[in-house]
């Protein structure tokens, strides 16, 4: 999933940034990593071209698997044990690639997250390079990030630093259009989260910030009913207000009573009401019929809810239920919720990982990296493991036009991101797992 295109420089984060003893100069080994990545630049760009030119829209199962096979071969040669995990046919998705590298026992276990599917594919989406810009589906979201990950690992292997590292890679085949139920389509990612200590995700990034918090997402749906009757009797004792006044009251109650809490948003996506309402909750479409001289008996509204913590989600749901329960005379309503993405709440541990990334960036001469305002970013795959382990996202390609046919990436920044990722992995990978035991939020 993409980052939001508008970027605010201010980082409003709840957790304090703990600055440890991170070095802002390069060691001899890190210089070696830097040199290996710079000299491999054209080879890395050719690899990106190769995988971008394999069309892999989420529902192109053969294409997604073909991209997976290319990465599998490369990872096998680095000493990873790779496994393609198929999804049941009923889910209609290609499956995921899981790759594991066993290093020194006791060293931190790192989960690296990518995805092979793209939003667009086909004609006009092939790789086109003009100077330092490469256009094409997945150049930035996120075959670019996958290639950054791979070439950082290649450099670490060459420098003899990979051998001691404990790394699990999970590449989803359906990040852009996840299959339901999520409990099945994200099962392997969640399992990997539970057997690792930290998560690093390579979705699109920026030069000056990375992501230690993303809001979660939930769907909600209201079904309201009224007593169908002659319109002339509306508001009367006997028949009351009807389904549409009831649903309007509820939605306006949300607006007047819940707006303004930090990082909390809720939006009504659609609303239908009348005498005969047919609504398809999967397709998010429907039909309605009515008469002008009646009080309507049915209404449905469907929307989403974004939150920064599980606690904020639960509190908001409770308040929404309370508002729903204050029915107008002659009407009734129920609200239901469906979990989509959990929140990735800011934690002290994630801030420590960011501090390592920041110092790696400074050591390379690329400047400071701060926390991105979570209000500026949508949900992503790292969110599924955030309830268990700390992490950092936005380590991938810098580009524009994600989720549009204009998608592109800046190839100079791809090299910068590869160098920064290699230094980050090098610095984290030798640390003990004990230093990443999650500490409770202050
Ligand atoms: Zn993505």
Can I get a quick summary?
It is built from 10 helices and 20 strands.
Break the fold down into its secondary structure elements and pairings.
Blueprint: H1 28-39, H2 41-52, H3 61-77, E1 81-85, E2 96-101, E3 109-115, E4 128-130, E5 133-135, H4 143-158, E6 166-172, H5 182-185, H6 187-194, E7 198-201, E8 209-210, E9 216-226, E10 229-230, H7 242-258, E11 265-274, E12 276-280, E13 285-289, E14 294-295, E15 298-307, H8 310-325, E16 331-341, H9 348-363, E17 370-371, E18 390-392, E19 399-400, E20 408-410, H10 411-429
Parallel strand pairs: 3-6, 3-7, 7-18, 8-17
Antiparallel strand pairs: 1-2, 2-6, 4-5, 5-20, 9-15, 9-16, 10-14, 11-15, 12-13, 19-20
Helix pairs in contact: 1-4, 1-10, 2-4, 4-10, 7-8, 9-10
Bound molecules: zinc ion.
What can you see in these coordinates?
This protein has 442 residues and is of the alpha+beta class. The chain has two domains: 28-213 and 344-436, Aminopeptidase (3-Layer(aba) Sandwich), CATH 3.40.630; 216-341, Alpha-Beta Plaits, CATH 3.30.70. The chain has helices at residues 28-39, 41-52, 61-77, 143-158, 182-185, 187-194, 242-258, 310-325, 348-363, 411-429; strands at 81-85, 96-101, 109-115, 128-130, 133-135, 166-172, 198-201, 209-210, 216-226, 229-230, 265-274, 276-280, 285-289, 294-295, 298-307, 331-341, 370-371, 390-392, 399-400, 408-410. The strands form six sheets. A six-stranded mixed β-sheet has the order 1-2-6-3-7-18, with helices on both faces. A four-stranded antiparallel β-sheet has the order 4-5-20-19. β4 and β5 (133-135) form a beta hairpin. The longest helix is centred in the last third of the chain and has 19 residues, at 411-429. It is elongated and about 85 Å long. The chain starts with 27 loop residues before the first helix and ends in a 13-residue tail after the last helix. Residues 1, 115, 141-142, 175, 203 line the site of zinc ion.
């Amino acid at each position: 999933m993409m980052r939001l295109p508008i970027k605010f420089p201010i980082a409003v984060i709840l957790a304090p940034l703990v600055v440890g003893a991170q070095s802002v100069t390069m060691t001899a080994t890190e210089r070696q990593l830097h040199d290996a990545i710079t000299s491999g630049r054209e080879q890395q760009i050719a690899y990106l071209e190769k995988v971008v030119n394999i069309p892999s829209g989420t529902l192109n199962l053969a294409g997604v698997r073909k991209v997976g096979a290319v990465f599998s071969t490369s990872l096998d040669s680095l000493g990873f044990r790779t496994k393609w995990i198929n999804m049941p046919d009923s889910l209609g998705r290609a499956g995921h690639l899981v790759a594991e590298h066993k290093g020194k026992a006791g060293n931190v276990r790192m989960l690296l997250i990518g995805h092979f599917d793209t939003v667009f594919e086909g004609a006009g989406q092939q790789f086109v390079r003009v100077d330092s810009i490469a256009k094409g589906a997945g150049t930035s979201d996120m075959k670019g990030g996958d290639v950054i990950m791979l070439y950082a690992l290649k450099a670490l292997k060459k420098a003899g630093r990979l051998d001691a590292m404990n790394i699990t890679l999970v590449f989803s085949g359906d990040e852009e259009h996840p299959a339901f139920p999520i409990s099945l389509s994200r099962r392997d990612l969640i399992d990997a989260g539970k057997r690792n200590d930290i998560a690093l995700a390579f979705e699109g990034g920026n030069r000056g910030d990375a992501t230690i918090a993303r809001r979660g997402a939930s769907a909600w749906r209201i079904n309201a009913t009224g007593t169908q009757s002659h319109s002339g009797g509306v508001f009367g004792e006997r028949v009351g207000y009807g389904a549409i006044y009831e649903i309007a009251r509820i939605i306006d109650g949300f607006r007047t009573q819940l707006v303004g809490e930090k990082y909390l948003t809720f939006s009504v996506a659609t609303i239908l009401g009348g005498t005969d309402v047919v609504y398809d909750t999967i397709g998010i479409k429907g039909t309605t019929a009515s008469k002008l001289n009646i009080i309507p008996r049915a209404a449905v509204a469907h929307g989403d809810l974004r939150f920064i913590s599980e606690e904020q989600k639960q509190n908001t749901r409770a308040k929404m239920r309370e508002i729903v329960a204050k029915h107008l005379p002659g009407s009734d309503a129920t609200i239901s919720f469906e979990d989509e993405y959990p929140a990735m709440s800011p934690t002290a541990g994630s801030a420590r990982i960011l501090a390592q990334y920041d110092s790696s960036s400074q050591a390379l001469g690329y400047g400071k990296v701060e926390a991105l305002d979570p209000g500026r970013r949508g949900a992503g795959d790292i969110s599924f493991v955030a309830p268990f382990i700390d992490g950092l996202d936005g380590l991938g390609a810098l580009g524009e036009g994600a989720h549009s046919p204009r998608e592109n990436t800046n190839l100079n920044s791809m090299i910068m991101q590869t160098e920064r990722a290699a230094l980050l992995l090098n610095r984290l990978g030798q640390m003990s797992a004990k230093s990443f035991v999650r500490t409770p939020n202050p």
